[in-house]
């Protein structure tokens, strides 16, 4: 299922705090977007031009939301990597930890935590057991957002086999499997529905 993602004139995009940058689109060309930025010091200032891909990248990195309800998820659909990143950020904030404090507990850099929270789970797999322990949850809850429970769903035999194979993998290989499936879906032009 594909999600329609269109940059349009008059859309206003607001990035997530702490920066909370605001960009209003003035013109959309074939490969470029003309916008103006609002800063805390002044109202909207000079016009800027970037590529469509550059604007989309800013949306993803800043976790921006548009005035008409679009977001980074609208670009690519649901992503398990982004979901895990959001879960880390939510749990970290709920525990009252800064990125640096959390990084110190894990023995990693603050940059690594930032990468994870933006859906780039480089080398996160070996840290999953410690992350789960720090937050007092099971690895299964950390990865899936819920504990393993019996849920009745209509699935085909091949889907059941895939689920069984996935569950048989160690945690570090589960993330590799997710990333590979995401890559294949994007290659086919598919977006994973939420």
Q: Could you describe the 3D structure shown?
A:
A five-stranded antiparallel sheet has the order 4-3-2-1-5. Helix content is 46%, strand content 12%. With 194 residues, the protein is an alpha+beta fold. It folds into two domains: 12-76, no CATH class; 80-171, 434 Repressor (Amino-terminal Domain) (Orthogonal Bundle). The model has no long low-confidence stretch (mean pLDDT 77). 17% of the residues are buried. It has helices spanning 52-62, 72-76, 80-94, 99-106, 110-117, 128-135, 139-144, 157-168, 171-187; strands at 12-14, 22-28, 32-38, 47-51, 65-66.
N-to-C SSE string, H for helix and E for strand? EEEEHEHHHHHHHH
The CATH superfamily of the largest domain appears as lambda repressor-like DNA-binding domains
Oligomer: single chain
Number of structurally distinct domains = 2
**Second rung of CATH, namely the architecture of the largest domain:** Orthogonal Bundle
Q: Which runs of at least 5 residues are low in confidence (pLDDT < 50)?
A: none
- Please count the beta strands (DSSP E, at least 2 residues each): 5
Radius of gyration using CA atoms only: 19 Å
- The helix content is 40-55%
Q: How much of the residues is beta strand, in percent?
A: 5-15%
User: What's the CATH C level of the largest domain?
Assistant: Mainly Alpha
Q: Please, how many helices?
A: 9
Terminus-to-terminus distance: 10 Å
Keywords: DNA-binding
GO molecular function: DNA binding
InterPro entries: Cro/C1-type_HTH (IPR001387), Lambda_DNA-bd_dom_sf (IPR010982)
Protein name: XRE family transcriptional regulator
């Amino acid at each position: 299922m594909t999600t329609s993602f269109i940059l349009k004139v008059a859309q206003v995009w607001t990035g997530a705090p702490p920066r909370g940058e605001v960009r209003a689109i003035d013109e959309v060309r074939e490969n470029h977007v003309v916008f103006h930025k609002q800063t805390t010091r002044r109202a909207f200032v000079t016009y800027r031009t970037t590529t469509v891909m550059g604007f989309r990248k800013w949306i993803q990195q800043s976790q921006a939301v548009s005035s008409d309800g679009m977001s980074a998820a609208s670009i690519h659909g649901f992503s398990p990597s982004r979901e895990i990143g959001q879960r880390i950020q939510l749990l970290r904030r709920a525990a009252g930890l800064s990125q640096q404090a959390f990084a110190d507990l894990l023995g990693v850099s603050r940059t690594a935590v930032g990468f994870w929270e933006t859906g780039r789970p480089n080398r996160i797999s070996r840290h999953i057991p410690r992350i789960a322990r720090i937050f007092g949850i099971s690895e299964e809850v950390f990865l899936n957002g819920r504990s393993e429970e019996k849920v009745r769903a209509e699935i085909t035999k091949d889907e059941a086999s895939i689920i069984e194979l996935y569950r048989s993998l160690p945690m570090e290989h589960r993330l590799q499997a997710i990333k590979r499936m995401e890559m294949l879906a994007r290659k086919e032009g598919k977006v994973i529905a939420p």
